[in-house]
Design a protein that fits this description.
CATH class of the largest domain: Mainly Alpha
Strand order of the largest sheet: 1-2-3
Order of helices and strands: HHHHHHHEEHE
Distance between the termini: 50 Å
CATH superfamily of the largest domain: Cation efflux protein transmembrane domain
Structural class: mainly alpha
Shape: elongated
CATH topology of the largest domain: Alpha-lytic protease prodomain-like
Number of domains: 2
C-alpha cells in the first residue's frame, strides 16, 4: 500500500542525498561538468524535496482563526519555490558549460561514471512513479507532483549526461561534456517554466480544470429541484477545490425547505467529487411557472 504524502516526501529527501553524494564524488574525480551539473540538479532536487515535505506538513494543518480556509496553498507555495530553485540551477549550469566551451578542460571518464549515471536513471524512474502514485492515491498533491517532476527531469538530464560521457569515452569528443551540461540546463529550464506556470495559476485563484468544472455543472443540471444556477466560481488550494455557486429554487418553498435544498446540493457535490472539499451554495427563489 502506498504511504502518506509526507512519508513519500521524506523518502524523496533520502534518495536525493544518496544521488548527490554519488554524482558529486564521480564529477570531482573525473572533472565532468555534465556530471557535476547533474549533481547540482540533484542538490536542487533535495532542496525541492525538503520544501515539498515542509509544504505538505503545513498544508495538513487545520483551519484556524487567522487562516479560515486552511493552509492548503502551502503546497502550491512550496511548488513555486521549487521552480525558482530549478531556474537558478539552470543559469548556473549554463554559465559553467559555456566557460568550459571557451576554455576546454579534460574529462576523464571511468567505468564508475557509467555505473553512477545508469543507477541514477533507474532510481529516477522508480522514485518519480512512486511519488506520482502516492499523489494520485491521496487525491493529488501539488508539492508531490512537483517533486515527481523533478525526478522526471533528472531522468532526462542523466540520459543527456550518459550520451555526453559516452562520446568522450569512445571518441574523445571532449566538447560533448559541456554540451551535455547545456542539455541538462535546457531540460531543467523547461521543467521549471511549465510547473511554475501551473503553480502560479493556482496561486492566482484560477478556475480548476475543465473536467472538474464539467462534473460540477453536470450535478447542478441533473438535480430536479433546481431551476438553473449562476455565478459559479471555483478555485484551487493545494489539492482541494473550493466552490461557490448560486442556485435557483421554487419561490414557493419555505425558507427552511430552500435551505435544505441548498444543503443537499452542497453535500452531493462534495460526495460525488471528493476533490471539492468546500461547497458554498446560495439559494435564490424564482417563479416556478416561468422556469418550469
Amino acid at each position: 500500500m502506498l504511504g502518506s504524502t509526507a512519508g513519500a516526501a521524506l523518502y524523496s529527501v533520502l534518495v536525493n542525498i544518496v544521488l548527490i553524494a554519488a554524482k558529486l564524488l564521480v564529477g570531482l574525480l573525473t572533472g565532468s561538468v555534465a556530471i557535476l551539473a547533474d549533481a547540482a540538479h540533484s542538490f536542487l532536487d533535495l532542496s525541492a524535496s525538503i520544501f515539498a515535505f515542509a509544504g505538505i506538513r503545513t498544508a495538513a494543518k487545520p483551519a484556524d482563526e487567522d487562516h479560515a480556509w486552511g493552509h492548503a496553498k502551502a503546497e502550491n507555495i512550496s511548488s513555486l519555490i521549487q521552480m525558482f530553485l530549478l531556474g537558478a540551477t539552470c543559469i548556473a549550469i549554463v554559465i559553467e558549460s559555456v566557460r568550459r566551451l571557451v576554455v576546454p578542460g579534460t574529462v576523464r571518464v571511468a567505468w564508475y561514471s557509467f555505473v553512477v549515471v545508469l543507477a541514477a536513471v533507474v532510481i529516477d524512474i522508480v522514485v518519480s512513479r512512486y511519488l506520482q502514485g502516492v499523489s494520485r492515491a491521496h487525491g493529488g498533491s501539488a508539492a508531490l507532483e512537483a517533486d515527481a517532476l523533478h525526478f522526471s527531469s533528472d531522468l532526462w538530464a542523466s540520459l543527456a549526461v550518459l550520451v555526453g560521457i559516452t562520446l568522450v569515452a569512445v571518441f574523445n569528443f571532449q566538447i560533448a561534456d559541456p554540451l551535455a551540461g547545456i542539455a541538462v540546463a535546457v531540460i531543467i529550464g523547461t521543467t521549471a517554466i511549465e510547473q511554475g506556470r501551473r503553480t502560479t495559476q493556482v496561486l492566482l485563484d484560477a478556475m480548476p480544470d475543465r473536467a472538474t468544472l464539467a462534473a460540477i455543472e453536470r450535478i447542478l443540471q441533473s438535480d430536479p429541484r433546481l431551476h438553473g444556477y449562476h455565478a459559479l466560481r471555483a478555485r484551487q488550494a493545494g489539492k482541494h477545490v473550493l466552490l461557490d455557486v448560486s442556485v435557483h429554487v421554487d419561490g414557493n418553498l419555505s425558507l427552511a425547505q430552500a435551505h435544505e435544498v441548498g444543503h443537499a446540493v452542497s453535500q452531493r457535490v462534495q460526495r460525488e467529487l471528493p476533490v471539492v472539499t468546500d461547497a458554498v451554495v446560495h439559494v435564490e427563489p424564482v417563479d416556478d411557472e416561468a422556469h418550469g
